[in-house]
Amino acid sequence: MQTDEPELIARSIARDHEAYAELVNRYKNAVYHHCFAIVRDEDAAEDLAQATFIAAYYHLAKYDPRFRLATWLFKIGTNKALTYLKRAAREVQADDSLIASIAATTPQPHESAVERELHAAVARLRPRYRAAISLYYWQGLSLQEVALTMGSPVGSVKVWVKRAKEQLRKELS
Predict the structure, then answer these.
(1) How large is the average pLDDT for residues 108-117?
(2) What long-range pairs does 158-167 form, CB within 8 A, spacing at least 24?
(3) CATH classification of the domain holding 54
């Protein structure tokens, strides 16, 4: 029998580590894949997902239960991934080889050639576009949830998704 989420959250706030471990198990793959979609680096995505859950643990009392826990976790992960990319971009000035590692995509063995090409094209998008595409298409969030997660107006998210799709169409045609 699966424990309901509000109970797990309450127990986690009370520092029940087993309850929090169950929440992590429920969302770890989705958070990892979302971070990976933004940074396109497996090791960095794993570190960012872990940092997301650590931050969430210490700030769980601030979680607003009116929203889905997944949305809140994606927001934390998005912020961490974008911060990571900003730091990496500053380091690029000192080390041009980092550009290749940030932009590189790691093909997954189960992906078809078309999926690999799509993921490679998405990896070349601007970070905000990548985040919007990941949240909207790959994580299944609504535009309103994407806006909440990214801390941006819904109109901006719509524009980012539209522009990302236009760039992808041009690149993949």
Answers:
(1) 69
(2) 160/128, 160/129, 160/132, 161/129, 161/132, 161/133, 161/136, 163/129, 164/122, 164/125, 164/129, 164/130, 164/132, 164/133, 167/121, 167/125, 167/129
(3) 1.10.1740.10
